[in-house]
Amino acid sequence: MRIIFLDIDGVLATHWSITQPRATWSNQYMYPFDPVRVGHLNELINISSAEIVITSDWRLTFDTLEKLKGVFEHNKVVKSPIGITQDFSFDRDSEIEEYVSRHNLEEFVILDDLSLACFPHHFIFIEDGEIGITQKHFEKACKALEIPPFYNESKHHGLKKSKAREMQQFKEKWKTKSKRFL
Predict the structure, then answer these.
(1) CA angle, 78 as apex, 21 and 73 as ends, to 5°?
(2) Which CATH number applies to 3-147?
(3) pLDDT tens digit string along 81-112?
């Protein structure tokens, strides 16, 4: 199973989010996610079939997974979170390491605007939290998850020609679809 460890503020909730009129918020605590950033996340979920695990402090504000699922549905994210990391007094590195170890994960990516030291090959640093996830971050996440068009063909050199052709068609389709989110 592929997992996206997801922070919210600075990844999906951006400067755009907090500037929206309060009347558009679903409640007094939940400002909307930036729809462009949701588009990048949805595309990543759709092509990777990944599940979401929340690392964000939002997991403390919305104290149940059901409440978080409501937040994601309200913001039109194609999948709701399946889990949250444990709270180790704001030590996000340890929280993610514990979750990965407990679930014996190998295929995962971490999207966060905090600089984290854990799992450098799986970590995608969202360097500008006012903008959030961009096409560049989406592409890095695809590469970290080894999904087309970043599938490491050298690891899978025994592919049949039909599979290689299918992968090439997928890459071309992906390039066309990804232009929507630039």
Answers:
(1) 45
(2) 3.40.50
(3) 999 999 888 799 999 999 999 999 999 999 99
